[in-house]
Amino acid sequence: MLERPHSAGYIEQQLSFLRVYGDTWIGKRGMVHPLADYVDDPACFKRSYAAKEDRSWEGNAVDFKSVVETVAAIDPRVAAQLALLLAFGLRRKEAVMFMPHSAVVSAESVPTSQHASDRYAVFLKVERGTKGGRLRFVAIRNDDQRKALDLALQFALHPSSHLGHPGLSLKQALKRFDNVMQKAGVARKQLGVTAHGLRHQFAQEFHVELTDVQAPVRGGDVCADPETLSTNYMTVAIQLAPVLDMPLPELAEKLRPRLRTNDFGELVQVCTATLDAIRRLTRSRPTVYLPTHDPEGAERLAKRQLAGAAS
Predict the structure, then answer these.
(1) What range defines the domain where residue 88 resides?
(2) 306, 246 in Cβ contact below 8 A?
(3) Which of 54, 119, 291, 294 lies 20 to 30 A from 216 at CA?
(4) Is residue 273 part of a domain?
(5) Phi then psi for 172, rounded to 5 degrees?
(6) Cβ atoms of residues 64 and 57 within 8 Å
(7) Domain check: are 97 and 31 in the same one?
(8) What is the CB neighbour count within 10 angstroms for residue 179?
(9) In 3D, which of 98, 103, 53, 58 has the Cα closest to residue 80?
């Protein structure tokens, strides 16, 4: 019996751990059932990936510049980590483990599934600290991103250096980040936002840059030029989570019927779930994306999985 109530997301996470154990470790596929089979009222445990409130700093009238100055006075290294959250939509663990010297790559090194066009020449490679070790690429589009990179380089003195505190373990470095955030007032009960809200803000600003339309959670018109919006939703989403190695417009078309809302969070979850499903189907160790040396085979595999997921 649980000593305190937990969110549907937390319970799903714990169930997924058991599912990996059953499916992969001991080879008992199907041993762990969906959450709905274990509860009296499945509706109470249904997760919603559509944003119901604006969690970005800007949407909550929190000035990033003034807060980051406060953070820098406490710990300048954490301020550099925080700048990466806004500039590239990183999670805190990704920022702490970030290695700036080896992160910048040219567009030629990026799979076609990770960018929509030739509009971007340089990308940031994000792999360390990502969920499941999944590689993704974030376009370097503006001077603010370059300044965040330059700041990170000031604290990573060697080619193999990361942005975490020297001498601290990963657990300690993450705790240091959390402690500095709390001391600076970056918490729901104080400023009304968390550091993760900068990831939301990154997605919203990128969306406006591409479409000149605000994100739906900010009252943007989702009916304005739906085809353009659909493609640009995917462009934003793949820079928050990895997707399959197939052309972006084709992937967007295949995933559109599965989307219940035009929302970044849900789209990211669909991309991630589809990738995880294909990994389970191939029964291979975690990979970054389907192999480019056999694009036709990769596409056939994707089609079969997407068809099964939609049924």
Answers:
(1) 58-199
(2) no
(3) 119
(4) no
(5) -70, -40
(6) yes
(7) no
(8) 13
(9) 98
